[in-house]
Design a protein that fits this description.
With about 325 residues, the protein is mainly beta. About 0% of the residues lie in helices and about 70% in strands. It has a 21-stranded antiparallel β-sheet that branches. The protein is elongated and about 90 Å long.
Length: about 325
């Protein structure tokens, strides 16, 4: 069966039929549904002072799915079918994440819309600092359109912001930007990043409709070390077109992707054009490496004074020239 476990329920009813008041308690043990498992569940539903309002207290412990597990997920709050105010807590998951937030909102059943505010969002994780929400975020949900006003999380130096609107019948957009993220924050996933002093800033924007989407991105360590990309995606034809440019006079960041080079240095410039199928687009343009040097730990070899030009041709071929 898809669903298994033990459930214990108790409660009582009182009042007139049209104003019936319900008090209930539900407990569950070793609940499993498909690939999801929970060791313990508890739900308490209590009438509050207002005639149509209830207090809700829900907890789920030791939730797991595959290799992922959450120690605790809880919801506390009060409300009715139309208006509600809840506090959420989550503990566990990747990097022992701790998350808490408040959500209050209104549901209009005839229009099928929900509007509310997300406030007091706090996130922390193992080996990472605490991040907190700077201001209230407005959220609007319906069958045809979803909106989120600017949601910003502030850390010790870095700041992440997100806003967007999904309206496939018209035009949709998603904006995201990251400011001054120390690369050493990536240490839980990329240990070498602890040795990098730079900070990363990025801007990311998606606009489009059902068929055509445009992606604009910029990532930079500083004004002399940055990459820009403008891509257009056709989801009907599954094709992509766009331009990518990059210029760097620091190359230590290469060690975020490989440990086969030590202390890389030099300058990198690239001007590329993409076109074709998303899975295997043609890439045309040039990549120029100037005054490059590095140490290769495996062989103990020092390489230096590398000047290389890669001219990418059609049919996935390339012409290399220079010295190394």
């Amino acid at each position: 069966p898809d669903l298994s476990g033990k459930v214990f329920a108790s409660g009582n009813l009182n009042g007139k039929w049209k104003q019936l008041r319900i008090k209930s308690k539900l407990e569950g043990e070793l609940i499993s549904y498909q690939n999801y498992h929970a060791r313990a569940l508890e739900l308490n539903l209590l009438p509050s002072a207002k005639s149509d309002e209830y207090t809700l207290d829900f907890q789920a412990r030791n939730i797991s799915s595959g290799e992922q597990s959450i120690e605790l997920f809880s919801i506390h709050g009060k409300g009715n079918q139309r208006k509600h105010d809840f506090h959420f807590d989550l503990q566990g998951g990747p990097l022992e994440t701790v998350l808490s937030a408040n959500i209050n909102g209104n549901l209009k059943t005839k229009k099928g819309t929900w509007k509310g505010d997300l406030t007091d969002l706090h996130i922390s994780a193992e080996d990472l600092p605490d991040y907190h929400q700077e201001q209230s975020t407005r959220i609007s949900l319906s069958k045809s359109q979803q909106n989120i006003s600017e949601l910003c999380l502030q850390g010790p130096t870095e700041k992440f912001c997100l806003d967007g609107e999904i309206n496939l019948a018209n035009k949709s957009f998603i904006n995201a930007n990251l400011k001054q993220l120390p690369l050493k924050r990536l240490a839980p996933w990329i240990p070498f990043s602890k040795e990098l002093p730079e900070q990363l800033s990025s801007e990311f924007k998606i606009t489009g409709n059902k068929k055509i989407w445009q992606v604009d991105t910029r990532s930079e360590l500083d004004s002399n070390n940055r990459m820009d990309a403008i891509l257009s995606l056709n989801t009907d034809q599954n094709t992509v077109e766009g331009d990518i440019t990059a210029r760097f006079n620091k190359l230590q960041w290469i060690n975020l992707f490989t440990e086969k080079l030590h202390q890389p240095s030099g300058k990198l410039n690239a001007n590329l054009k993409l076109s074709g199928r998303v899975a295997n687009p043609d890439v045309l343009g040039t990549i120029r490496l100037t005054d490059a040097a590095a140490h290769i730990p495996v062989t103990g070899t020092e390489i230096g004074d590398v000047n290389l030009l890669i001219d990418l041709q059609s049919n996935q071929s390339a012409i290399l020239s220079g010295k190394f």
